[in-house]
Amino acid sequence: MRIEQIELIEVQVPARAGAINSPSLDKPLHKLATGADAAWTRQFDEFPKVLLVATTEDGTVGYGESLRAPDMPTLRAMARGLAGRDVAALAWQNLPLAKNREYDGFELLVLDLLAKRAGLPLASLLGGSYRSEVPVSAWSGHRTPDEAAMIAERAQRNGATTLKLKCELDDDVVEIAAAVRERCGDGFSLIFDPNERFEELRHAVKIARGLERIGNVVCLEDPLPRWDLGAYAELRARTSIPIAIHVALGYLSHGQRISDVTSAIASRAADVFNFSAGIADFLRMAHIADAAGRPYWHGSEIDLGIMEAGAVHAAAASAGATLPSDIFGRLIRETDLLRTPLSITGSAVSVPEGPGLGVELDLDAVAAHELSRELVTAVVAR
Q: N or C: more exposed end of the chain, with fewer CB within 10 A?
């Protein structure tokens, strides 16, 4: 199965109106510095993604999707590195490409083609599904207490049982939890994600103890700066709220590595994990957490449908992926660009059953959000 060509389609899909933050809380969520822009200065949906569409010599079409704000020259060079290759001869767990923020989309592309070649859903190629549905949460950015309660109630009406919220030290996190509890009752839970912005242990302890009194919090994710695992361990010792660490391998500039998982476990710094990575590295981290008895979920960058489908298959094939995964892109963005969207029914998403990723692009939706397109073809020896 030789790759004849790879099409790079740059797209930008905005978020739905009002889907990110309260109107009074203008807080950009893109954590990485990009070009001349500092971290936390631009919103995530301002950045493009790139769809990768490969066609093989027998006409099989495979899909991949980049993380947001990819480097186009790097994508182009990596596509040239795969065009002309026999997919069956590639070691998908270690492709002959640089491990960078552009890598994951090509790994997904190769896996989609391999699973289609085998006539299997991708999860079967990864070892088989532990579940036919993957738990998921609803999501929002920064909200006032009243708006958080409104968003939670709406999610609950749609069948969700968990809402993940962004927050920082300036947000009244305890009051948000109380407002949601009053509106939604005992059967609805929250995940708070400060992205390391509770700043100091004393702040995190105070907030965690307030949340203990409310009683509706699944976990605090990355409450403190990631370099201080000792503070994480101390926080765990001083609260009953579970503490999660997000290991996001796309954050190379932040120094995140697979070894962060073993360090956190050895330091007793985390009860649970959020893992964001390409599929091979996600499985590597999942196996470490499984061995240590730590549950986890699949993270995201509020992705489009191709990458989310890959996350669903990876989480389905992982024993400990029992916490609500961050698979909610189509609920936040205007479209996921899929012909048939992933089936999200409140608190779970069904694992696609067709061969490969089990999804197809909606070409009209892609065209409506397209910024650029280019084709990389295999070089024919003469």
A: C
Cβ atoms 343, 121 nearer than 8 A: no
Closest CA to 194 of 219, 160, 162, 216: 219
Q: Is the pTM of this model over 0.90?
A: yes
Segment (H or E) for 283: helix 279-292
Q: Burial of 237 by CB count in 10 Å (0-12 exposed, 13-18 middle, 19+ buried)?
A: exposed
End-to-end CA distance of the chain: 20
Residues 257, 229: contact at Cβ < 8 Å? no
Nearest to 39 by CA among 203, 253, 199, 255: 253
Residue 115 CA to residue 126 CA, distance in Å, equals 9
Scanning 63-172, the segments in alpha helix (DSSP H) are 72-82, 103-118, 122-125, 145-157
Residues 2-53 have pLDDT tens digits of: 999 999 999 999 999 999 999 998 899 999 888 899 998 999 999 999 999 9
Residue 41 burial by CB count (10 A; 0-12/13-18/19+): exposed, middle or buried?
Answer: exposed
Residues 180/216, Cβ–Cβ less than 8 Å:
yes
Instruction: Tally the C-alpha atoms within 13 A of residue 109's C-alpha that lie toward its C-beta.
Output: 30
Burial class, 326, CB count within 10 angstroms (exposed 0-12 / middle 13-18 / buried 19+) = buried
* Residue 43 CA: distances (Å) to CA of 26, 27, 31, 337: 9, 8, 9, 20
**What confidence score (pLDDT) does residue 35 get?**
87
